Predict the 3D structure of the following.
Amino acid sequence: MAVCDKTFNILTSPEGPYADQFIPILPFEEVPLETAENFNCRIDARRHPKETKGADYQVTNLTDGTASCSTDSCC
């Protein structure tokens, strides 16, 4: 779920109460705060990945294709 910078920092701060409850995913391309557009954190609608990852987004690959998860392996 995308959140604004303020919420991201609250949820992921190592000193904060939520640090062990969230796995932060940093943006693919860092946007400097000086040039970032306002983000409405009050909207909870799901967005298509192409909205945040770009129009050419097809799939997220977690491995290079050589590793696999199964009951016999450790992931």
Notes: The mean pLDDT is 75.
